[in-house]
Structure formats: C-alpha cells, structure tokens
Design a protein that fits this description.
By secondary structure, the chain is mainly alpha-helical. The protein has a domain of about 80 residues: Tetratricopeptide repeat domain (Serine Threonine Protein Phosphatase 5, Tetratricopeptide repeat, Alpha Horseshoe). The protein has five helices and no strands. The longest helix has 30 residues. The radius of gyration is 34 Å and the shape is rod-shaped.
Amino acid sequence: MKLGIICLAVFLAIGCAGNVQQAQNTTNAVSQPQRAEELQSVIAHTTENQTPKPLQANADGSSGKSKWSQSGEPIDTAKFDVVIAQAEKALKSKSADAALKTALAQAYFDRGFALTEARQYASALGDYRRALKLDPNHEESKQWIGQIVGIYEMMKKNSPKEGEEPPSLPFKKS
C-alpha cells in the first residue's frame, strides 16, 4: 500500500510539473507581442537627429535662406509677379506719383491674398507689409497683417519680422 501511495504521488508530481511548464509557456506567449516585423523605438521615427535637406535655389537665383520655413500649397504667382514688375517699373520712372504707389500697393496686396489662400502665411505677410509701406492707409493689408500675426501668437510662435519673410513656394508646372 505504501508503494501504491508513493507511485501515485510521483505521478501527480510529474503531471503537475508538466502543467506548470505549459502554463509558463502560455504566459510568455501572451506577454510578448506576436508580430512578424521588427519592433522599432520612437527614436527611429523622429526627425530630430536627421540632417536638414539643402535649400534649393529660387527662380530669381537666390538661395532662399531664411530662418522661416516655407509652408502651404505651391501656387502659380506669375500673373501677380508680372503686374508687380510693371507697377514697379512705372513707379521707378515717376516716383512721386501717388496713384502709381497705390497701384503697386494693390498688386502686392493681391499677391499676398493669393498666398494667404494657399496658406503661405509668412510669405503673404511680406507682401502685405510692402503694400502698407507704399500705401499706409491700405486697411485690408493692416487687417491681414493683424490676422497672420494673431495666428502666430495663437501657435505661441514669433511671426517673421519685416524683411525675414521667406519667398513664396516654387510652383512647378505639370
């Protein structure tokens, strides 16, 4: 009888040990993710330590180096650029003509408004400031300057100072 009890105890011990090992394997399988791809750390996804892309030259040949980044949608400003160039040329020949200053201010405002619609706020800010410099009474330019500066303040960022505004994004014709 003692031999029977000892054999029964041995069989129970072996059976229980197998169940404990199986339970441990199940626990390990649950605690480790079942993924085929390799896990990556958050650092692998950050741009913090990546080298910045070099700036490309603009259409006017300048490098476009500015502490302000360009953002928004690229748009074709060619028609605005032509009007501005013509107005600047006319104003150069008659620099005291108030009507020509007003026309150039309106041309800068029109391009600034188009840039605003394309969400190129920093670039638009420069055009609104140029318009206001030519026509200090240009109310729409004052309003848009206030709105863009307000956007930067809401984002808790400094807006570009006068002369720091980046050029508009280059537009590539398809």
